[in-house]
From TrEMBL:
This is Plant organelle RNA recognition domain. Residues 35-364 form the PORR domain. GO terms for molecular function: RNA binding. InterPro entries: PORR_domain, PORR_fam. The lineage of its organism: Eukaryota, Viridiplantae, Streptophyta, Embryophyta, Tracheophyta.
Length: 396
């Protein structure tokens, strides 16, 4: 069996005993979703650079990292690009170069696009940052495996979410094989069933953000602080009495670490809900922007023991999570990671995103300057023509 060697990676924990009584079942509790404009703006503000990143990825995945312009034009719908490729390139001049080449030896030259020198410089910068923070990337991958049911996750699933967590493009073929003390790759990604297995349980990684926060506060105050979620209900949000009572009792339950073995817990119990919220909180905390599209989380239901109705967890705990509907897709966000629309809990790997945004802004500033110079030159030409015409009129 694939997971036989993983059973003893972590000792099982006995089911804890709780004295709390809940007056309502989890499934009967309903909370009305309320729009949070500031958190929606946080997603909207990343829309443009994400579009640029999609187009770049499309070109870099081509042989030789070049593609005929007309071929890329045919992929506009899949890329969700609502303007022509040539217009896109003109608006983002730092990303690509257009040059002429032949698709076949005897055909006429056609426009091709390739990464610009500035984009290549950025890609080198990205490699340097990933190398600098490799230990963080390794820890993230270990944590994702340690929280999972079998301490193993499909390689294809992890490749699919690499951008959510800041994993390098080549992490499966470069990083994973270099850490045999942590990871074992079974099978070949993209060629049938393949998994990354956890080889060794590192207790240093088995501590959640919530637990670390409680430890830091305890060390600061000298008073033992119990691990607990930060709950920040949005302005004007109101919970019905039944829901308030349930949340009050639920908050009093002991925190269950997402790294604990909960195989003995009833899937529909409040304790399991507490653990599930802890897993979602930790997954979002590990992500770059402390937010993940809900459909992506849905792919990991079996891995993390989520019920099929897991999205209800986010609205039931609206003081911890927010579900945005921006962009036509549900995205769950961690409330305590944001202040208004600003991300305050910043991942070190966001250094890459910051530099990418600078690259785009530099190109747009230069383009605006070029337009300004052209307008000024046209204005001067018009003034000179007017002067010459006036002089001709005087001569007549």
């Amino acid at each position: 069996m694939l997971f036989k060697t993983l059973k003893n990676l972590k000792p099982s924990l006995s089911k804890p005993t709780y004295s709390f009584r809940f007056t309502a079942s989890i499934s009967s509790l309903k909370v009305i979703w309320r729009k949070d404009r500031k958190l929606d703006e946080a997603i909207e503000s990343s829309k443009q650079w994400r579009l640029c990143a999609r187009v770049i990825k499309e070109v870099l995945n081509e042989p030789g990292q070049v593609i005929p312009l007309r071929y890329l034009e045919k992929r506009r719908e899949r890329l969700r690009l609502n303007l022509t490729v040539k217009t896109f390139i003109n608006r983002n001049p730092n990303l690509f170069e257009i040059y002429l080449d032949r698709i076949k030896p005897k055909t006429e030259p056609v426009p091709f696009i390739r990464p610009s020198n500035r984009l290549n410089e950025f890609l080198e910068f990205e490699k340097e940052v990933n190398s600098k923070h490799e230990s963080l990337i390794v820890a993230k991958l270990c944590k994702l495996l340690m929280m999972s049911k079998h301490k193993a996750i499909s390689a294809d699933k992890l490749i699919h979410v690499k951008r959510e967590f800041g994993f390098p493009n080549d992490f499966m073929i470069d990083l994973v094989p270099r850490y045999p003390n942590y990871f074992r790759l079974v099978g070949s990604p993209g060629e049938g069933e393949s998994f990354i297995e956890l080889v060794d349980w590192n207790p240093e990684f088995a501590k959640s953000v919530i637990e670390k926060r409680a430890e830091e506060e305890s060390n600061l105050t000298g008073i033992r602080v119990r691990p607990a979620f930060n709950v920040r209900l949005p302005p004007g949000f109101f919970l019905k009495k039944e829901m308030r009572e349930w949340v009050r009792d639920w908050m009093e339950l002991p925190y269950i670490s997402p790294y604990e073995d909960v195989s003995s817990l009833d899937q529909s119990s409040p304790e399991m809900e507490k653990r599930t919220v802890g897993v979602f909180h930790e997954l979002l905390s590990l992500s770059l922007f402390k937010r993940i599209p809900v459909p992506i989380l849905g792919k990991f239901c079996a891995d993390y023991r989520f019920s099929t109705a897991f999205p209800n967890t986010f609205t039931r705990h609206s003081g911890i999570f927010y579900v945005s509907l921006k962009g036509g897709i549900k995205t769950v966000m961690l409330r305590d990671a944001y202040k208004g629309d600003e991300l305050i809990d910043r991942d070190p790997l966001l250094e890459i995103t910051d530099r990418f945004i600078e690259l785009l802004e530099e190109g747009r500033r230069e383009r605006a300057e070029q337009f300004k110079l052209k307008r000024e030159m046209m204005q001067k030409d018009m003034e000179m023509m007017a002067i010459r015409n006036h002089e001709l009129d005087l001569d007549e």
